[in-house]
Amino acid sequence: MDSINCMTDDNKTQTDTEVACTNCEACCCRMEVMLLTETGVPGHYIDTDEWGGRTMTRLDDGWCTALDRHSMLCRIYQKRPLICREFEMGGYECQAERTAAVRWANS
Ligand code: SF4
Ligand code: SF4
Fold it and tell me: What does the DSSP assignment read for 18-75?
């Protein structure tokens, strides 16, 4: 990944940075991801609660276990959950996560 503007580029703000995954440190991969359908996610990436609800496991750093911490890319892209497939780049939640990451980095 060339740059990580949403986290570290203090010369730009959210409003003057084009919203793109290539300039984002996978901000949305820190959100809770429920598994609503079967897409082939390997079992060791899945948490199951006492009621049988399944979510992607996250580590102490907040990111999904399936995120490669070096490339900041999804390691199971072809098998990623439905929610990840439908997440809209540039949509409301995307922009909210990017803004939250900037606030967190500047706090
Ligand atoms: S969809 Fe949005 S929040 Fe997720 S990696 Fe792309 S730009 Fe970042
Ligand atoms: S499964 Fe992949 S795309 Fe979905 S949150 Fe985890 S790392 Fe991100």
Answer: ---GGGS--GGGGS--B--S-----GGGEEE-TTS-EEE-B-TTSSBTTB-TTT-SBT
Domain of residue 58, residue span: 5-89
Is 101 contained in some domain?
no
Look at ligand 2, atom 8, and give the residue with the nearest C-alpha: 29
- Does 97 reside within a domain? no
- In the reported structure, the alpha carbon of residue 50 is separated from the centroid of ligand 1 by a whole-number distance in angstroms of 30
The whole model's pTM is what?
0.84
19-74 per-position pLDDT tens digit: 999 999 999 999 999 999 999 999 999 999 999 999 999 999 999 999 999 999 99
Q: Is 29 touching ligand 2 by the criterion CB < 6 Å? A: yes
Ligand 2: which residue has its CA nearest to atom 2?
A: 74
